[in-house]
Design a protein that fits this description.
heterodimer; A: nine-stranded mixed beta sheet; 12 helices; B: two-stranded parallel ribbon; 10 strands; 48% helix
Chain lengths: 388, 400
């Protein structure tokens, strides 16, 4: 313990970076925005009627640091976010996650607005109502109006909590594309069980499934995809997140849900310790975020009435923390691994605005509540004033 | 059970030297908080297999705790004492399985939002301890060497981006006989200062010819150990209800003997097995193995000399290839490995600079068989670049 944490000079450096980094990030982003920066009085998109409004949330996961994304040295990895989406966004430079830094539990916290404490590696529902439950119950929306697409099989219970006032029947439908693919390939003789072992933190472990996951036969009924077409298309894709975006496209075209939550996960390959693969994951996720945005613009059901949120679930350990191993993990709980960014763009969001004040991870759900007019009564966070 | 209840019989399963160390300091441990004691026991239970410098540090830490007055003890350990534990945790067999307890404690601290308080307690304690017991200075100024990029014929992007700011970048280095020269240089240091486990050579492939005084670890040399470990893990993974925590507990109990590792050096054998059982990705990628091995060797053995050579790791196949029915043999990814190694070299330098005598330490990173290198040292101007012709012998000489 002592040896892990004993590094005075390194700690001082970390503190310095922690205190100055937000200013640095804000400056870097403002510099990038340049003449497109319109400030708080800038052009606002036309107000959108709540009833027609749609929300898409993408978690830029799992876990990316500023220095590989929006900090100057990382901007090379996110050309799409930087050049295409940022000028259209309200960008928050300081989003802090004070909860447990495990991907499932952190995403569950984002989705409930409460720092969940469930076992990150167990197949358990969140303890507090999810945004999907508030949305569906308060606004009396059908099950088809709230969906989650998550590449990691451990996320199969994210759609609804076990809270007694909400829970079963009020949640989102969950699609696990990799699980779906494994099921689609089940008739083939090759062993594809490695596809299920997708938790990079524990690469040899595959969680048992349970809950309201999407079944294979629904491929055809809901997504209008034959198993053969699905398999054939999957064979052209390079990663699970690409498969997720393919499913997102089908979902938007066939179901057009008003609340769609997409959890990216390719970046978490970082746990294997190969920096080039981590950066490659960030570049792919950057491209896929732009694809989803373009899809939103091109789909009549979404164009002009959709707000897109993109945010990492959290960061990763800093190079300077002796207790960690740099980008590889998110175990130290240091301020750099807890602090990240968020961009919001589309309907009702001002363009080219950079917000430096602190936003809490749990503020997302109350903000969505304010935008869509539902009451996340048990959420701990507060609506973000610039968006609500 | 709390520390005050500790008795010698709680440590009968400890290896002999660890048992003696703990029972000699039982009085001290009985009055300290559980969160501290369990963490200390996690280190102490491995005492028989620790490197010499680790042993000395542990002995000094225990002696220091014993010498504190009751008032000083309160002051030093108040942060740990303030951590509220559950009765469930206290009831565990923590003296017998301290590593398991620390794992449970970690989960508990996250869940109860006490992680930050624990971090602060640990950092405050570490600061006090390093003031009271300054770390040993190295017997000779440290020298770290990273050799990266084996197998890459051409690479246009800038290398050593993060290291350059701390030293001098050379773009016209004669690469002839470079690896041999570097291995000879570290071999000579080991012969001139023959202290066990203070001079290391870590290779991501097969080890090159080197002086016997060097402590050598190579990825290829451990291929059968890796395979044996994966073979043992598979049935565990397939067991119903097996989760990550249970898997980690299983891995922590794997011994070198069970994996057929018997080099006659139990300390090094244990170290090497831990690289696979505690490291993440070390079982799959040689670049990760090398970086983690260097990190652990620096943290634990505190070497005076270390040469680390990154070699190409296997290529990560994209999903479409994984789905193709025809699975080809593993291919290598030299360019991706170069990018991994470039950052790995930077991490090696950071980890070296965490050790004592950092103001006198030097570091050299070289793109194998190419003309680019960076040198960092007390006499090397920072952020400079040289386009003059030079060679590796000259660069090594400049490290002092």
């Amino acid at each position: 313990m002592m040896r892990l944490l004993n590094s005075g000079p390194a700690r001082n450096l970390r503190r310095q970076i922690a205190s100055s980094r937000r200013d640095f990030l804000g400056s870097a982003v403002r510099l990038t925005l340049g003449s497109t920066l319109l400030g708080p009085c800038g052009l606002a998109r036309a107000a959108v009627f709540t009833k027609r409004r749609k929300i898409v949330v993408i978690t830029f996961g799992g876990g990316a640091r500023d220095q590989e994304t929006f900090a100057p040295e990382g901007q090379i990895n996110i050309p799409h976010l930087l050049r295409e989406l940022l000028p259209q966004s309200t960008f928050f430079t300081q989003v802090v996650n004070r909860g447990i830094l495990g991907h499932y539990v952190a995403t569950a916290s984002l989705a409930t607005g409460v720092y969940e404490t469930i076992n990150n590696f167990a197949s358990l529902p969140p303890e507090h109502p999810t945004v999907f439950e508030y949305f569906r119950k308060d606004l009396k929306r059908p099950a088809s109006d709230a969906w989650v697409v998550a590449p990691s099989n451990g996320f199969n219970r994210i759609g609804e909590s076990d809270h007694r006032s909400y829970g079963r029947g009020f949640g989102a439908q969950v699609i696990l594309p990799k699980h779906l693919l494994t099921a689609a390939l089940a008739s083939e003789h090759t062993d594809y069980s490695h596809l299920l072992r997708d938790n990079y933190e524990t690469p040899f472990y595959a969680p048992e499934l349970g809950g309201n996951e999407f079944e294979l036969e629904q491929l055809e009924n809901i997504l209008k995809l034959s198993v053969d077409d699905f398999k054939a298309h999957a064979r052209t894709l390079s990663s699970p997140d690409e498969l997720s975006v393919y499913i997102v496209r089908q979902l938007m075209q066939q179901e057009a849900p008003s609340l769609l939550w997409v959890t990216m996960h390719d970046i978490d390959i970082a746990h294997a310790g190969a920096y080039s693969l981590y950066v490659e994951g960030i570049r792919r996720t950057d491209r896929l975020c732009a694809e989803v945005w373009n899809l939103i613009q091109s789909e009549p059901e979404y164009a002009g009435k959709t707000t897109l949120f993109i945010l990492p679930d959290f960061g990763r350990d800093s190079d300077e923390d002796a207790g960690g191993n740099g980008f590889q993990h998110h175990r130290t709980g240091d301020s750099l691994s807890r602090t990240t960014w968020m961009m919001a763009l589309g309907a009702g969001v001002r363009e080219g605005v950079v917000i430096d004040h602190l936003v809490d991870s749990t503020d997302l759900v109350p903000t969505l509540g304010a935008m869509l007019s539902f009451s996340p009564s048990l959420a701990q966070g507060k609506p973000i004033p610039e968006l609500a | 059970m709390l520390p005050r209840d500790l008795k010698p019989e709680h440590f009968t399963k400890y290896p002999p030297e660890a048992r003696k160390l703990i029972t000699d300091h039982l009085e001290t441990l009985r009055v300290l908080p559980l969160t501290y004691v369990a963490n200390l026991l996690r280190e102490a239970i491995e005492y028989d297999f620790r490197f010499p410098v680790e042993r000395r540090e542990l002995e000094k830490e225990l002696a220091n705790a014993g010498a504190l007055t009751p008032e000083q003890k309160r002051e030093w350990f108040q942060g740990f004492a303030a951590i509220a534990l559950s009765a469930e945790l206290e009831k565990t067999d923590w003296p017998d399985r301290p590593a398991r307890f620390v794992e449970q404690l970690s989960a508990f601290l996250w869940t109860t939002h006490q992680l930050d308080a624990f971090r602060k307690a640990a950092l405050d304690y570490a600061d006090r301890l390093s003031r009271a017991l300054p770390p040993e200075p190295p017997p000779v100024p440290r020298l770290g060497i990273a050799v990266i990029g084996q197998g890459v014929t051409a690479y246009e992007d800038p290398l050593f981006y993060k290291l350059r700011a701390h030293g001098a970048y050379f773009s016209r280095v004669n690469p002839d006989g470079g690896l041999e020269l570097l291995l000879n240089a570290i071999g000579k240091r080991a012969q001139d200062h023959p202290i066990p486990y203070r001079h290391w050579y870590i290779d991501g492939g097969s080890a090159g010819e080197h002086a016997p005084e060097l402590t050598c670890v190579s990825y290829q040399g451990l291929a059968t150990v890796r395979e044996a470990l994966l073979h043992r893990m598979r049935p565990q993974i397939d067991q119903p209800g097996m989760g990550p925590e249970a898997l980690r507990t299983f891995l922590a109990q794997v011994t070198p003997e069970e994996l057929g590792l018997r080099t006659g050096d139990p300390i090094l054998d244990r170290f090497q097995v831990k690289l696979f059982t505690e490291g993440s990705g070390t079982q799959i990628f040689s670049t990760t193995f090398v970086q983690w091995a260097a990190r652990e060797a620096l943290r634990r053995a505190q070497p005076c000399t270390m040469l680390v050579r990154f070699t190409p790791r296997q290529r990560q196949k994209p999903m479409n290839e994984l789905l193709s029915e025809k699975q080809d043999q593993a291919e290598l990814d030299p360019v991706g490995s170069l990018i991994d190694a470039d950052l790995g070299a930077y991490y090696n330098w950071i980890n070296q600079q965490r050790l004592s005598g950092e103001e006198h330490s030097s570091f050299l990173a070289w793109f194998e068989n190419h003309s680019q290198a960076v040198v960092i040292g007390p006499t090397i101007p920072r952020g400079t670049e040289s386009r003059s012709e030079t060679n590796l012998a000259q660069l090594v000489a400049w490290t002092g």
